[in-house]
Amino acid sequence: MASEQPSHQQVVEATAAAEAKMRPQRVPVNVYETTGALVIVAPLPAVTPGDVTVELQPGKLRFWARLRSASPTKDYLVNEWDYGGYEREVEIPDGFGSAVEATLTNGQLAIRVLRGEPAESLTIQPS
Asked: CA spacing 20 to 30 A to 35: which of 4, 12, 64, 111?
């Protein structure tokens, strides 16, 4: 017997309810330095660039992604991660922060924090 598909409104309501009670998932990162930038790479499965925000402030970088969607009808036997609700803050060493660039491809967020004097505050979405 096939299960009934939830309506769009049911998914919207379930997502809002899940987001209200969930704690953001801490995202693991890899950080390395190139000639012109500090590079931060993080897995963000099942979100799109429009779901992600990257914020650069002097001495720190924070990125997060909203919950993509929640199912009102699934009773998981094991539920260790969700489609979104990601968040991470990374300290930025001196000498970096003049600008920030980000891309999200195949579930991998790559952020480049350019060398130079830190900007006041920059907020972008990945391309």
From this structure: 64
In order of start, what are the domains of the chain with their CATH numbers?
8-124 (2.60.40.790)
Q: Which helix (H) or strand (E) holds 109?
A: strand 108-115
**102 touches 127 (CB < 8 A):** yes
- Tens-place pLDDT, residues 30-63: 999 999 999 999 999 888 899 999 999 999 999 9
Element (H, E) at 101: strand 96-105
DSSP of 29-80, one letter per residue? -EEEE-SSEEEEEEE-TT--GGGEEEEEETTEEEEEE------SS---S---
Pairing mode, strands 30-33 and 96-105:
unpaired
